[in-house]
Amino acid sequence: MANRAEIASRIFRTAHELGIETVAIYSDPDYELPYVREATLALRIPGQYPRDTYLNIEAIMEAIERSGADAVHPGYGFLSENAKFASAIESAGVTFIGPSSDTIRTMGSKTEAKALMQDAYVPTLPQVVIDKDSEVDVETLSRLPYPLLVKAAYGGGGRGMRILTSPSEALSLIRAAQREALSSFGDPLVFVEPYIERPRHIEVQIFGDRFGDIAHLFERECSLQRRYQKIIEESPSPLLNQEQRTSLLETAVRAGKAVSYVGAGTVEFIFSPDGAFYFLEMNTRLQVEHPITEMVTGLDLVKEQFRIAQGEPLSKEIREAAQRGWAIEARIYAEDPLDNYTPQAGQLRDFSFDIDTVRVDSGFESNTSVSSFYDAMLAKVIAFADTREQAASKLELALRRAQIAGVPTNTSLIRAILKEEEFLRGDIDTAYLLRHTPATLIETLQLDTDDMNLYLSALVLYVSNKRSKRRTSLHEIPFAWRNVYNSDLSERVSVGDKEFLVSYGFRPKLAVKVDEREIRDPKIDCLDEHYVRFEGNGRLYNFWIHENGDGTYIVNGPAGSVNARISDRFPSTQRQEHRGSLLAPMPGTVVEVYVLANDKVLAGDPLLSLEAMKMQHVITAPNDGVVTEIRVKSGDQVGLKDLLVVLDESSND
Amino acid sequence: MIRNKAAIERDQIISSFDPQSEAAITNRKKIMELLERYNQLVAEAAAGGGERYVSRHKKRGKLLARERLELLLDPDSPFLELSPIAAYGTNFHIGGSIITGIGVVSDVECVVICHEPTVRGGSMNPYTLRKNLRALEIARVNRLPVINLVESGGADLPTQADLFVPAGQIFRDLTRLSGLGIPTISIVFGNSTAGGAYVPGMSDYTVMVDRGAKVFLGGPPLVKMATGEESNDEELGGAEMHSRTSGLSDFFARNEIDAIRIGREIVYDLNWRKLGPGPSVRSDDPMYDQDELLAIAPYDLKQPVDPHEVIARVADGSRFHEYKATYGTSLVTGWASIHGYPVGILANARGVIFNEEAKKATEFIMIANQSDTPLIFIQNTTGYMVGKNYEQAGIIKDGAKMINAVTNSTVPHITLIIGASYGAGNYGMCGRAYDPRFLFMWPNAKVAVMGPQQLAGVMSIVARESAASLNKPFDEEADAANRKAIEDQIERESEAFFMSGKVYDDGIIDPRDTRIVLGMALSAVHSQTVSGRKGYGVFRM
């Protein structure tokens, strides 16, 4: 398995079902992930960075040899669509579970693939290719109507992609796209094509065998994206009528035939609002979102991949597959949707789902760490039901009841989308999350006051209970016992930008108030380390409470989760940061420092760039000033909120 | 190590108390009324100097005494306030303008002494002094670190005659504690002048709040009078000056909250270790409802109380291994544990102490000293038996044995008065004069040389005899009125509230809190070594 985490676990499951032994490779940060344990053999590839580990063909080839593996599954991402890797495997006499290296090469180049598709009468968009060395020919670009989209020729997942709205910014954005394309995909080749506004993104799962047979397994609707990355996918697509569907599926099969496709592949199309669709690219691998196809067809796509890799023709099941019911998949990312989806790292204090109602393909589990070296996707949660509406509410409920703590995720955002009207109407396109900001969406999940009061009461009592248990002195005495009642104890709790005062005391029975609103007959039972039963106002709520490790708590309850911070009793007076300090917005590696000490800078000037989770972030000056201190140099690893640069605003005149 | 006594069959008290009986219900009601009255007094004390002074204090950006206290204590930890209604029945503000108690700071049990600046500027009156000295004594005998939260205007000058001479003991006690290796910490929030300046002066650690602390022997007017020198508060005794120049302050605090934070850090760095063995047996709740103690506490002191019913609601698992159960049955003795601390219990059963009871108590105290076991005295006594038979049987000698044993016992004693405490019974059962580590009273308790009716009756008989010997006529009517007046006076002066006002106890407690309070007291005594007097064997009386 030339991959990691979620997809490795997924492949192992089917392999083991078929009695196939499995080999995992793991980088140093991945040592504790479940897939490493699940494999029948696990081999370490020392290092952290993808280029040293999961993109290191030499090391992986060596692992293949060491383990005696006779087939390699590449998963998705990493080397899954790397022709060099596929051909290295082919020449080693090992089976590559996927198409031939030639097909990968052809399809890997979006430019080449488009040319081929044009020949097969598959509709495509016009394009201009920009070679890495050639100067960008703005003249040529002007043949295309703005806005334009620049994309990495060998890319995917939105990386190396930029929208060009005017010729003036074209050059710098193309350069940025090239840089990202190089760092992400190893090739700076990019191309420019017309940008379709409010496009929809629908793809078709196809399978081909070595006998030239191609079949489709219906479509997947993938329009719901953030930063060009899918976060919610579904099958069928709510946007297609039967006629469109038939035409789309036929076109996909034609595309597959044009390259004599073998194995599992995906033909991606872009739909313009007028209903016209164009070939976008072909993914020569198993897609992240393959489970929704599995749910609606009842097939195990990995099993079919194995069959075809073993030289079998397309199975009867594939050829006769039907689309039944509705499946929706949500991708759970470790990211902060309210902070521009900044990837998050840290230890997952809890990570569990109610797997009785939904399918969960996860790469992580409680007490594993999310590192900043790889993609931040933690798991996929897939709900299947008779109708779209049912699937959406089922998924929302499952996410509401999920126990995720320690690392911020996009779970709330997804829950909000699943309840949002436009989404429920099926009115989605790739600009959905530009129309609806994460902040406004998440706002809709806000608890009503009654629920919030119960949540916060439970949290504060839980914390005080834990605190009492840690105390060794007089721990036998009921907590906060007084023979002279002074005042209730109180904690200031903030949720987002709102602050609540939760006070509690024994007079002599437990009494709890939130902002002067008394909770009727409160009762708390801390049943285990994280599980709390709280009774109040005649309601019984079960809560799972976790400390996130940064002083905040996540309270998971029947109405969803609340992230709360309890203010310190003694505000720290020592850790006052200098004014003008610029802190790392996320953990990552310093790519380049653009300024020197004593440089005068203007607001907006780039100071340094930081790479994290394969994305580059430029730290710019928030105001005019003089750089008084530089704490990092290129290549440094920085943690969240580490001091990078100090800017003195006063000394600039 | 917690010994698992569950493996051993222990005697368990089987309660025969009926909380639903009419008497029980009536009694409960009466006790609740007393508690209500008591709680009003406590609330009055807790309110400090009243609305006007409280708001003035707050306007200065200062924390109230009780806010300082709550912030100092570990969140959610218990606090046992001592003598909350000191000065009750006097002209001074109830509470004695000082708060003292035992609480947990940085996971260390400490004595906290906190001036109440909203009551006459936190100045000290004779009751403040008693309460302060008692708190220091508790710290000394139980080896508990002391934290002073200082803001006091000094002596209440009109009462200086009752104050000046004995008040010197505060400084002596502070430094004596230091000499015993018991840490003393002062956090100075405000005035701490003249004599008061020696509180930080005599403490091991001193924290001063910027622009709050004023620590000097003489303020600007006094200095001007004495030497003609012009000066201001900050120069003479500000936190900045004492932290930078005089060195009296070890820690400069930016504000009150910061000062409390520093105080907590100081305690953390004491690396404190208790010397007692600590709890050593299973600590489980009693089998019976502690709430029923309200119905058991005798409102009418003539009604005897079976102490088993009290122990059954206080001891771990209601377990009680009785010693000499069939001998001297008016005093119940035996072994139990409270919050896991093994204890010996002596409890009056029918008020009177006869010869056998006195001898039984003596033996029991001696064996508790052999096994280093703390003793709990549960008082409900009308005293030693009088009468020919008893005098001739040597009740004085037997009573003397018991008093000797109590006096020379060195295991910690904790006394709880649940009803009557009359006559030498008060002494033999370790009354205040016998230095119990702690002494608490239920609100219905009465303490006097004898019961009000008996006392009035005795006085009446003496008067009648005196009249007879002088051959004077005896005025029956005047005697009745006189008897009534004496009875009322004694009644009033013997009540728990009055005694507590005089700081003759460490506080009145709600009977329902008995187990908690004894548990906290036992935990405190275990801060010191727990060891009995050795030398002689146990005399069989």
Automatic annotation (TrEMBL), chain A:
Q: Does the keyword Nucleotide-binding apply?
A: yes
Instruction: Report the leader peptide range.
Output: none
The record places domain ATP-grasp at 114-310
Cofactor annotation: biotin
The Biotin carboxylation domain covers 1-438
Q: Which GO terms describe its molecular function?
A: ATP binding; biotin carboxylase activity; metal ion binding
Q: Where is the Lipoyl-binding domain?
A: 567-648
Alphabetical keyword list: ATP-binding, Biotin, Ligase, Nucleotide-binding
Q: Which Pfam families match?
A: Biotin_carb_C (PF02785), Biotin_carb_N (PF00289), Biotin_lipoyl (PF00364), CPSase_L_D2 (PF02786)
CDD domains of this UniProt entry? Answer: biotinyl_domain
Name of the molecule in the record: Acetyl/propionyl-CoA carboxylase, alpha subunit
Automatic annotation (TrEMBL), chain B:
Q: Which residues form a coiled coil?
A: none
Record-annotated CoA carboxyltransferase C-terminal domain positions: 282-528
Q: Which InterPro entries does the UniProt record give?
A: AcCoA_carboxyl_beta, ClpP/crotonase-like_dom_sf, COA_CT_C, COA_CT_N, MCCB/AccD1-like
Q: Name one GO molecular function term.
A: ligase activity
Q: Which residues form the CoA carboxyltransferase N-terminal domain?
A: 31-282
Pfam families tied to this protein? Carboxyl_trans
Show the stretches that span the lipid bilayer. Answer: none
Which domain of life does the UniProt lineage start with? Bacteria
Q: Which UniProt keywords apply?
A: Transferase
Q: Does the keyword Transferase apply?
A: yes
The UniProt entry, under Gene3D superfamilies, shows: 2-enoyl-CoA Hydratase, Chain A, domain 1
Give the matching SUPFAM superfamilies: ClpP/crotonase
Name of the protein this chain belongs to: Acetyl-CoA carboxylase, carboxyltransferase component
